[in-house]
Amino acid sequence: MTYGPAEYVSLALAALLVGVAAALAWRAWKAGRITPEERECRRRADLAAFGKMGDATLVEYRGNNLFYSYLVRGVEYTACQDVASLLDRMPTSLTIAGAVSVKYDARNPANSIVVAERWSGLRK
Fold first, then answer.
1. What is the model's pTM?
2. Using an 8 Å Cβ cutoff, are 55 and 112 in contact?
3. What is the mean pLDDT of the chain?
4. Check: CATH 2.40.50 for 36-113?
5. Where are the beta strands (DSSP E) in the chain?
6. pLDDT confidence bin for 95, thresholds 50/70/90
7. Cβ atoms within 10 A of the Cβ of 90, count?
8. Which of 35, 89, 94, 103 fits a 20 to 30 Å CA distance from 114?
9. Which residues are CB-contacts of 94 (< 8 A; sequence separation ≥ 6)?
């Protein structure tokens, strides 16, 4: 069986169409993925909007990390929040070992924040 020029052109166009479709699908998939920074920003926004508020104690502020502890239903949690992307929300003089507010997920109390883009539990 031999193919004529029309069949070769049709095969070439079909291969080109498959290649273009694959490239567009890959590009859409890549654009739809969120970065770890965006995922963390969304987590903070969700906790700030829907999290349960409680009292916490700021244990230490070292580098860009806030270390704090809080009590939920008799269980003590100690957590650390990286605030490198929130330095504009941090006060210039932060007293160590002070009272702060915390927002946490009621279904998973270990998921908590002290500072977010639109909320801060740091007391002046």
1. 0.71
2. no
3. 90
4. yes
5. 52-62, 65-72, 75-82, 99-105, 108-113
6. low
7. 15
8. 35
9. 58, 61, 122
